[in-house]
Amino acid sequence: MLSATNGAMDKDSEELMNTNDTSEQVMALVPPELHKYLMVHPRNSSANSTEKYGTKNVSDILRVIQRLNEAQTIYNEDIFGPVQNDTIIIAIQVHTRLTYLRHLIVSLAQARDIDKTLLIFSHDYYDEEINSLVRSIDFTKVMQIFFPYSVQTHPTEFPGMDPNDCPRDAKLEQALKLKCNNALHPDLHGHYREAKYTQTKHHWWWKANRIFNQLQCTTGHTGNVVFLEEDHYVAEDFIHMLNLLRVTADRTCPQCEILCLGTYLKTYQYHSNSDKVEITPWHSSMHNMGMVFNRTVWENILELHDQFCAYDDYNWDYSLLHLSQNRPGREKFKVILCKGPRVFHIGECGFHHKKSNCNASTVISKVQKLLQDAKSYFYPSRVTATISAGGAKHNKKLTKGNGGWGDLRDQELCTNMTQMGRQLRKYIYFA
Predict the structure, then answer these.
(1) How far is CA 390 from CA 86, 242, 262, 386, 396, in A?
(2) What is the rounded distance in angstroms from the CA atom of residue 160 to the CA atom of residue 98?
(3) What's the EC number here (predicted)?
(4) What is the mean pLDDT of each run of 10 residues along the chain (431 residues)?
(5) Measured distance CA(51)–CA(60) in Å, rounded
């Protein structure tokens, strides 16, 4: 996940991810017609490459993303038809991990009924190579949205790092002497904000507000929104399982507000678990991958936006857990999840993962092989639900956050994004 395990990575570091050749073993398990999504095109391979991939300055990028966000273009709508109120929306949070994104797209392309969905790619880094890849998708409807408060577009001012911001490890007395911007607001551990970490929570919150409250095509949308990230990988029957989860929740657990298609397991037993689902209290670190909810749940979250925005934790999922545990007069979120996961995390190489000999292809090929071996267990006609009270970790009340979110500017930006979304939604309804 991006929040706790994959922080922001600078683009120069990430370029290494795209030069890591996809292994023959991985390519052998990808249908030939999908190889195009894995092909890396050298930037100096054509006369027009400088123009296509030339570095834009910050002002140019801001103008481009404003224009694109205003346009709200839906690619392939002429082929696959307009977005309906019950269309499954798949929201994908993208930073710069291009190699992983390529493989996520390949996995999505192989999913049954993917042509009935809308993919919304939400970017916090503007890059023409990423854009070209996303716009080359030809198997369903696609939209791109661009987070306008990124570190890329604010490199020397908040929400990026202002030169007069306090150093992360400065002591309060030192910060007061320096008279740095946020001297009075370290986090609960005594540290000052780091923009590359706060960006992920801001981006997740903006993306959700944007999708539910600001897009013309979702004004009346009541269907499910699936939350994925660029380093996820889906099984071919994940939409089938999503529909079964929804039907089962409606029948046996109407209080289950969140569906979950992915779990973090050390071993997988599809022969016994492919048609099993579990109902349990939602926990951030266990049920944040392939998370699904609809507008009704989002509006319940919005009612308590202060619990999310003011909580001193730079992780969006732990902030959501805090909100869940502090709902006046209501129980914590309940989740219904696949015991045989249909969403996987392949992002083992990156900012927080310092494994020696880390190779993206190794993890990807393992997931491919796992899914190939499990194929005969996919597409169950029905599922069996069990209820679990959850372990000690599920039920432990959060006493304090992980920090990184003590700066009042972050809290205010988060709140302002919520208010802006509500205002725009009223405008969409009554314009």
Answers:
(1) 31, 22, 17, 12, 10
(2) 22
(3) 2.4.1.143
(4) 38 44 84 93 43 68 97 98 98 96 98 98 97 98 98 97 97 97 97 97 98 96 98 98 97 96 89 94 94 97 96 97 94 95 88 61 93 96 90 72 97 92 48 37
(5) 14
